[in-house]
Write a structure and sequence with these properties.
Blueprint (H helix, E strand, L loop, with lengths): L6 E6 L17 E2 L2 E2 H12 L4 E6 L4 H11 L6 E4 L4 H9 L7 E6 L7 H14 L1 E7 L4 E4 L4 E4 L5 E3 L3 E4 H7 L11 H7 L6 E3 L10 H14 L2
Helix pairs in contact: 1-4
C-alpha cells in the first residue's frame, strides 16, 4: 500500500478454557513462556512494521490482560476493544474504531503461528482483489454424513480456511451492517453474503487454531523448532 499506516489488524480473542479443561481462557495460556495472544500480536508487528493493532476482548477479561502485559513487560502498542455476544459482534465492535479507508486483517487470537509470508501475502492480495482469505489443501479423506449413511467427498476441491482474512475496510464495514445469522462462521462468510467475491490465497500449514491441550503441545513443539 502507498500508506502503510492504513494497515490494520483486528485480533479477536474471546475464547474460554472449556476445551482446554482449565479456567484460564486459551488466549492467555502460556506458549513458550508467554500468553498465546502475545505471540499472535507479535506476528503482525514483525510482519508489518507500521500496522495498527486492535485486540478485541470480553469486557471481564480486559483488566486481566492488562495485568499480563505488565507482568510480561509486553509493550507492543495496541488498542483494546470490548467484545460482543458473538464473534460477529466482536469484529463489528473492532471495526467501529477504524477509519473507512485502508486494509484490515481479521485474525483469531489463538493462531499464534501464522507466518510472515501468510500475513504479507494476504495484505498484498487484498490490495489487488479487495479481500484475501488464506487456505490450505485438505490432506485427509473427507466424508459427508447423513442420518443413515455417508459419502466420500473430493478433497481436491476442498480447502481449510484460516485467518488472517484481509479486506478493504470500507467494503467490510458495509458487509457488517447485515443482520447477524449463525451461518456467519467467519468474516469471509459475512463478506460473501453481502455480494462480494472471496479471493483465496495460500495459507501456512503450521497456522493451527489452538483449541485443545494437544494443539498447545503441537504449537509449543513447532515454536521451539523454528527458534533454531
Amino acid at each position: 500500500m502507498d500508506n502503510k499506516r492504513n494497515m490494520w489488524a483486528i485480533i479477536v480473542a474471546g475464547g474460554s478454557g472449556l476445551r482446554m479443561h482449565t479456567d484460564v481462557p486459551k488466549q492467555f495460556m502460556k506458549l513458550c513462556g508467554k500468553p498465546v495472544l502475545m505471540h499472535s500480536i507479535m506476528a503482525f508487528a514483525d510482519a508489518c512494521e507500521d500496522i495498527q493493532v486492535v485486540v478485541v476482548l470480553p469486557p471481564l477479561q480486559i483488566e486481566y490482560w492488562q495485568e499480563l502485559c505488565n507482568y510480561h513487560g509486553f509493550t507492543l502498542p495496541h488498542i483494546i476493544a470490548k467484545g460482543g455476544s458473538t464473534r460477529f459482534h466482536s469484529v463489528k465492535n473492532g471495526l467501529s474504531l477504524l477509519p473507512d479507508k485502508g486494509l484490515v486483517a481479521i485474525h483469531d487470537g489463538v493462531r499464534p503461528l501464522v507466518s510472515r509470508q501468510t500475513i504479507t501475502g494476504c495484505f498484498r492480495e487484498a490490495e489487488r482483489y479487495g479481500c484475501a482469505v488464506p487456505a490450505v489443501q485438505v490432506v485427509d479423506s473427507v466424508r459427508e454424513i447423513s442420518k443413515r449413511t455417508s459419502r466420500i467427498l473430493d478433497r481436491s476441491v476442498l480447502r481449510l480456511i484460516q485467518t488472517p482474512q484481509v479486506f478493504d475496510i470500507a467494503l467490510l464495514k458495509k458487509a457488517y451492517k447485515q443482520e447477524y445469522t449463525p451461518a456467519f462462521t467467519d468474516d469471509a462468510s459475512v463478506f460473501e453474503k453481502a455480494g462480494n467475491t472471496i479471493h483465496l490465497t495460500e495459507g501456512n500449514a503450521e497456522n493451527l487454531k489452538i483449541t485443545t491441550p494437544n494443539d498447545l503441545a503441537v504449537a509449543e513443539a513447532l515454536k521451539m523448532k523454528n527458534a533454531f
